Amino acid sequence: MSHPRDILLGAQARTGTLTVCDHYSGVEVRMRKSLQLQAEMAAEFGACVFDVTLDCEDGAPVGGEADHAALVVALARGAAPGARVAVRVHPVDHPAFEADIATIAGQAGDRLCHIMLPKCESPADVERAARALDAAGAPQLPLQALIESPAAVHRAFDIAAHPRLQSLSFGLMDFVSAHGGAIPSDGMGVQGQFTHPLVVRAKLEIASACHAHGKVPSHGVVTEFKDAQAFLGAARRAAREFGFTRMWSIHPDQIRPILEAFAPGADEIETATRILLAAQQAGWAPISYAGKLEDRASYRYYWQVLERAHQTGRHLPAEAQAWFTAA
């Protein structure tokens, strides 16, 4: 019998899924520690539960861009088998952009899960990056983009529509700065970024654009990593109120709270498993479960619950686990 992913998601299933956490680091010692932590947590959870994005934009010293790109290549090529490693390159208008792509995608494209494109302003920026990847011999490598300005938010739907694009992230700090003081500094904080109308609008536009085009909306930076409860609350709001299905981590202590916030609960996992097993038995025709009609629309939702549970390392019933271990 066909796999639930193929039955319920169709062409969307072929795009693959992303982990719910994207962890950033740009200093060599932290990049090495991030890759080590990724391997340790993959062994703990039985799956790679977060991406590691090696950062060239903020990580490379001015004048040392080529050396930093070479370091990133070495780290990506030396990562553990099954590691999910990405790279944030310089923006398309930066003098180092072309060299970043040629070096990193050209020498380590087969070991990367995606390239992050910062300060993306239009679909033309995505297209320029896609052509650069093709020229570097990495036509299979997906792009993700960072939306950081009011104009980019205005074009979010057009950017998300680009076929090479996999995900959009929200660059909160630059977005607030771009308003010339019109948004107060607490608009960048753990509370204000969820209440200031302009910031809220930007987040909802990005999330909506992604969902409209089958892409992954990724919530950006929350800088308060010392206050664990405040950060967990922010992650939960991003997931439950703003429609994001992925989030950035900028400190190792943020990774587990993101996994917790974006993971479904044990009861929801159990319900999803029972409904999908019954649906599979019925050949995916409508069924009655607990006195309620279930059909393809709800089956799709419950399959996505199980995918999210797998991505976050949650315990799955044996019957559901079989769907993820099957060839």
Topology overview:
Elements: H1 4-9, E1 21-25, H2 28-45, E2 51-55, H3 65-77, E3 85-88, H4 97-108, E4 112-117, H5 123-135, E5 143-147, H6 150-154, H7 156-160, E6 165-170, H8 172-177, H9 197-212, E7 216-219, H10 228-240, E8 246-249, H11 255-262, H12 266-281, E9 287-289, E10 292-294, H13 296-311, H14 318-325
Q: What would your notes on this structure say?
A:
- The chain is an alpha/beta fold and 327 residues long.
- The chain has two domains: 16-262, Alpha-Beta Barrel (TIM Barrel), CATH 3.20.20.60; 266-325, no CATH class.
- It is 47% helix and 14% strand.
- The protein has 14 helices and ten strands.
- It has helices at 4-9, 28-45, 65-77, 97-108, 123-135, 150-154, 156-160, 172-177, 197-212, 228-240, 255-262, 266-281, 296-311, 318-325, and strands at residues 21-25, 51-55, 85-88, 112-117, 143-147, 165-170, 216-219, 246-249, 287-289, 292-294.
- β2, α3 (65-77) and β3 (85-88) form a beta-alpha-beta unit.
- α4 packs across α5 (123-135) and α12 packs across α13.
- The protein is globular and about 65 Å long.
Features:
single chain, 327 residues, TIM Barrel, 2 domains, eight-stranded parallel barrel, two-stranded antiparallel ribbon, 47% helix, globular
